[in-house]
Specification:
four-stranded antiparallel β-sheet; alpha+beta; 523 residues
């Protein structure tokens, strides 16, 4: 699959995922806003009902007080008039509707339950015969109309008196004398639970017209910037006498979020799918890049192996010539070439076999305690001849006083050889090579550095030098021999020793590799 096709598919999928994620986030925002508005509206509506309930209670209180005061004064309207002594023997009840004429000329309809008593002996004014009973009933009805008209006017005057008292007296009293704060608490809880189904904790304050707190329930915050719901108590009071009820819900945000909690899992799953997809695309690009590097590796390996094989084949054909056997010097030279090229071929095959290390999570190491300074001296002595052959120098500076580390001697020696070989490969042709191997201690660790004055590495390539099959571009892919496995091998071995390795380099100035290893603490 072409890289451009992968990019197109990845772009389309990312756009689709981002669109889906955007829609879900937008839906959550809208749902959250709607739930919050519903909560606010429900609370405001119920607090308004609390205020009305308090007004009803106050009105009822004044009505009861006035009725109690005037009960004796107007009690005659509640007693039926009797025309004489009689001994009741039976009672007859009858509901009638009367039309009473008010003094101002208006009419009032009155429903009345009539109670008629009859005695054993007939009395004057009581119905005896149809001819005489009509006038008596008419007179009685008229008297009842007048009595109920007077009672109605009294009740109406009583209500007007109550209204005047509420308007003139109620607002002059302090709020703590007008209401019971426990009643307010009960009303708030009842209204929230019965009308809105809100069973959430709250606290409230009552503030007088001077903005002074009259009452504050436990848990009400002292901060001024918290969100509270404010409701007028007795809103018909004069503006200078208005009192306020303030209610605070500490778990308002959590309650609203709990109402939309069902949406959150879908958002989380979408994010997980997006992350998985991105990881898959990155892995796909890495695999494609690795495949390309493997292809380059195979091409390079073919070239590297072909050269010694061709040389050995040519030398073998020369040995078939009988004249070569007669010349010891030529025979020695040809056999020497075969020996050198065989070693070179074996070395290249060994490099290829190092690939098997990368298929394992951790290399099998034979760890032993070793003095790192002694190992570096041994490696330097072995490598100094090769450096001097190119007209260079190899110096060592062993500053580490503690150098006992636990390492696999063979693998770690190969690490140092690989780094020194790289310095030889990437040296400057017109400048004598200068190599420095150095050790020192810091933060309980041993540090080893190998520094050269070679061609250096560009900044964009520094992070890639430890990748498998990666070879720094130098124009001609075959001008520097290798498979791109050396530094990857170095990085893996150092990591398996629980160490670290980093590279510092400037193009045209040289390169420096720094290895750190944990020290063995000796008692």
């Amino acid at each position: 699959m072409k890289k451009s096709t992968i990019w197109i598919l990845a772009g389309v999928m990312i756009i689709a995922f981002m669109g889906l994620l955007f829609l879900q986030v937008k839906y959550i925002q809208i749902t959250f806003k709607t739930k919050k508005e519903q909560f606010d509206e429900s609370v405001k509506r119920n607090l308004s009902q609390v205020s009305r309930n308090l007004e009803f209670d106050q009105t009822l209180q004044y009505i009861e007080e006035d009725i109690a005061e005037s009960e004796g004064k107007y009690s005659q309207y509640n007693r039926p008039q009797q025309g004489g002594e009689s001994t009741p023997s039976s009672v007859t009840r009858k509901r009638e509707r009367w039309t009473a004429t008010n003094p101002d000329g208006s009419e009032t309809i009155i429903d009345y339950d009539m109670t008629m008593e009859s005695s054993e002996k007939p009395q004057q004014g009581v119905f005896i015969s149809p001819g005489h009973g009509i006038n008596t009933i008419s007179k009685t009805s008229y008297e009842l109309q007048q009595a109920f008209s007077k009672r109605y006017l009294h009740e109406k005057a009583l209500q007007n008196e109550v209204i005047l008292k509420i308007m003139s007296r109620a607002s002059t009293k302090p709020i703590e004398e007008r209401v019971d704060f426990r009643t307010i608490d009960a009303y708030i809880r009842s209204e929230l639970l019965s009308n809105a189904g809100l069973s959430v904790p709250y606290s409230f304050q009552v503030v007088n017209p001077n903005n002074k707190v009259v009452y504050s329930s436990p848990g009400y915050p002292e901060k001024k910037d918290v969100f509270v719901y404010t409701q007028l108590l007795f809103p018909n009071d004069p503006p200078s006498k208005l009192n306020y009820l303030r209610v605070y819900f500490p778990t308002r945000g959590k309650y609203v979020l709990s109402e939309i909690a069902f949406v959150v899992p879908s958002l989380i799953f979408t994010v997980i799918l997006l992350i998985t997809f991105i990881f898959t695309v990155i892995s796909l690009f890495r695999q494609k890049r690795l495949s390309e590097m493997k292809t380059d590796f195979i091409n390079n390996m073919t070239h590297e192996l072909k050269t010694p094989v061709s040389t050995i084949s040519l030398a073998a054909q020369m040995l078939k010539d009988t004249s070569i056997a007669k010349s010891p010097e030529v025979f020695k030279h040809v056999t020497g070439v075969i020996n050198d090229e065989t070693k070179r071929l074996s070395f290249q095959v060994e490099k290829v076999l190092q690939m098997s290390l990368f298929d394992k999570q951790r290399a099998t190491l034979k760890l032993k305690e070793k003095d790192a300074n002694d190992l570096i001296v041994s490696v330097a002595n072995t490598h100094v001849l090769k450096v001097e052959r190119f007209g260079g120098t190899l110096d060592i500076d062993l500053q580490a006083e503690k150098d006992t580390v636990k390492i696999d001697e063979m693998h770690f020696t190969n690490v140092l050889f690989n780094l020194l070989d790289n310095a030889l490969k990437y040296r400057k042709e017109d400048v004598p090579l200068e190599l420095m191997m150095k050790t020192w201690n810091d933060s309980g660790k041993l540090f080893i550095s190998i520094e050269d004055n070679g061609i250096g590495i560009k900044k964009e390539y520094v992070k890639k030098v430890f990748d498998r099959f990666y070879r720094i571009p130098t124009g001609n892919v075959h001008d520097v021999k290798g498979f791109g496995l050396g530094l990857a091998y170095v990085h893996k071995i150092v990591k398996d020793h629980n160490g670290t390795i980093r590279v510092e380099s400037d193009l045209g100035k040289g390169t420096k590799f720094i290895i750190s290893l944990p020290l063995i603490t000796q008692n």
